[in-house]
Amino acid sequence: MKLIIAFLALFYALPTHAKNKLFVVSSFSILGDVVQNVGGDLIEVQTIVGPNEDTHAYNPTPNDNKLILKADLIVINGLSFETWFQRLIKASGYKGPVTIASKSIPFHKMMEPQFSDEPVPDPHVWSNPRHVMIWVQNIKKALQKIDPNNTILYEKNASDYIEKLETLNQWIKDQFKGIPKDTCKVITAHDAFNYFEKAYGLVFLAPQGLSTLDEPSAHEMVNLIKQIKKEKISTIFVENISSQHLIKQLASETGAKIGGTLYSDALSKKEEPGGTYLNMMHHNVSTLATSLGCTVSP
Ligand code: ZN
Predict the structure, then answer these.
(1) Which of 37, 55, 81, 169 would be a feasible disulfide site paired with 123, CB 3.0-4.6 Å?
(2) Are residue 107 and residue 89 in the same domain, yes or no?
(3) What is the bridge-based pairing of β-strands 120-121 and 109-110?
(4) Distance from the CA of 56 to the center of ligand 1, in angstroms?
(5) pLDDT over threshold 50, residue 266
(6) Structure pTM?
(7) Which is nearest to 43 in space by CA: 1, 95, 99, 82?
(8) Are the beta carbons of 169 and 129 closer than 8 angstroms?
């Protein structure tokens, strides 16, 4: 088996074959990085919503129509994250395959009264690396379906990356081992870390709901300010994709300090600390562990 893989790897490393790579379009940067890891050298990935950009608030452009018409495969998260996606598909006339990476992930629903009378799915599944493992499986199956000759290579890429995700998951657990349950509270601008909270035990609070388009009412802001003061929450965090005005307002009204930037719904640019999914998670966890002072030595 190893010989076959080595031969195939050598074959696809030849520069003459580069132009025959599959062209995959992903909806946002975090997903794009994971797709690239599963496809490796066999694919080229482009992303609609780029680094440090907000997918919730995105508006597709005519260039996006052109981009997706060139795609052999499109990969989106789903769970109503890319609210503009159906509009884009319709406008472009794209008829190719679309993979919903979050299929089979156990998601939860929350009330978002500004947008719906019914509970809506929380799309931010990537804040738990174990959910990203399911992304990887779904992406792998989609690539194998459109490129069956390379089934073995996609399988190998996927299992290599899942191993890295398992290491990441264990490392995060170690960072927060022994933290006092329910007392380590983190304030961010929008509700993007619920799956992280469930997996690792911190508590996340946010003035905005599941979407950055959610504008908190004056009443909600007053309640959060009261809670920060009452519970003596000393550190709050800005996000790379959202406006900092709510967090700055909370800081000035409560005296809490800003503990750094968390990468919530997008990677950073390559030269910044969150240029890949693995680096972004390391950055977020290190920032939280250092600034909150909630960790307990083993
Ligand atoms: Zn979000």
Answers:
(1) 81
(2) yes
(3) antiparallel
(4) 6
(5) yes
(6) 0.90
(7) 99
(8) yes
Residue 297 lies in a domain: no
Last residue of a domain, one of 141, 170, 199: 170
Helix-helix angle 277-292:29-39, to 10 degrees: 130
Neighbouring residues of 181: CB distance < 8 A, sequence distance ≥ 6: 201
**Residue 57 lies inside a defined structural domain of this protein:** yes
Q: Could you tell me if 229 and 254 are in contact, meaning their C-beta atoms sit under 8 angstroms apart?
A: yes
Q: H/E element holding 120? A: strand 120-121
Round the average pLDDT of the chain to a whole number and report it: 90
- The burial of 297, by beta-carbon neighbours within 10 Å (0-12 exposed, 13-18 middle, 19 or more buried), is given as exposed
**161, pLDDT greater than 70:** yes
Rounded to the nearest angstrom, the distance between the alpha carbon of 297 and the centre of ligand 1 is: 32
**Residue 253, H or E segment:** helix 245-254
DSSP calls for 198-225: HHH--EEE-SS-SSTTPPPPHHHHHHHH
- Cα 33 to averaged position of ligand 1 atoms, centre (Å): 17
pLDDT, greater one: 147 or 16:
147
What is the mean predicted confidence (pLDDT) over 37-56?
A: 98
CA–CA distance, 134 with 152 (Å, rounded to integer): 18
Cβ contact 139:99 at 8 Å: yes
Q: State whether 136 and 206 are in the same domain.
A: no
* Residues 272 and 133 occupy one common structural domain: no
Distance between Cα 208 and ligand 1 center (Å): 10
Residues 233 and 110 both lie in one domain: no
| Distance (Å, whole) CA 164 – CA 282 | 12
35 CA distance to ligand 1 centroid (A)? 19
pLDDT at 1: 52
Which pair of structure tokens corresponds to residue 65? 């129509």
Q: Write out the residue range of the structural domain in which residue 54 sits.
A: 2-170
- Please identify which residue in the block is written with the tokens 């019914």: 118
